[in-house]
Write a structure and sequence with these properties.
Oligomer: single chain
Structural class: mainly alpha
Order of helices and strands: H
Distance between the termini: 64 Å
Strand content: under 5%
Largest sheet: none
Number of strands: 0
């Protein structure tokens, strides 16, 4: 049979949620930065022509 991970309790669950929130925030910031970069590159290329 498959071994399922034990459920997180107390401070373990809080730590897990905090780390997940931090990773999600980092991903959002990277995606937003890339979006701004692509937008800026597009504007610069349009203005040059």
């Amino acid at each position: 049979m498959a071994d399922f991970p034990r459920p997180l309790v107390g401070t373990e669950a809080d730590t897990f949620r905090r780390r997940r929130r931090g990773r999600n925030l980092a991903i959002v910031l990277v995606l937003a930065g890339l979006s701004v970069l692509f937008y800026a590159i597009t504007i610069v290329k349009l203005v040059q022509h």
